[in-house]
From TrEMBL:
Organism field: Thiothrix unzii
Pfam family name, one: WGR
Highest taxon of the lineage: Bacteria
Protein name: WGR domain-containing protein
Domain WGR: 13-74
Length: 77
């Protein structure tokens, strides 16, 4: 499996971004970090959560991606 996964979305009209990073932390625990904010300012926020395994992490990432698309965001490749 990969050591990390990252996906980013942007909303052109609202000028917002959303990013998800999944990677092990220094202790070997698998972490999901979600970051969001404005494309026009340095302000934003983030949330870190521990996930039990890669399968759960990728399922959660898929759910987040569907929600972002439903809200008008575009996946950045």
């Amino acid at each position: 499996m990969n050591n990390s996964i990252s996906q980013s979305w942007s909303h052109a009209v609202k000028r917002r971004y959303y990013r998800v990073d999944i990677a092990p932390d220094l202790f070997g625990d698998l972490c999901m970090v979600r970051s969001w904010g404005s494309l026009d300012t340095a302000r934003g926020n983030s949330k870190m959560e521990l996930v039990p395994c890669w399968q759960v992490a990728t399922q959660r990432l898929e759910q987040i991606g569907k929600e972002r698309l439903r809200r008008g965001y575009t996946l950045i490749i």
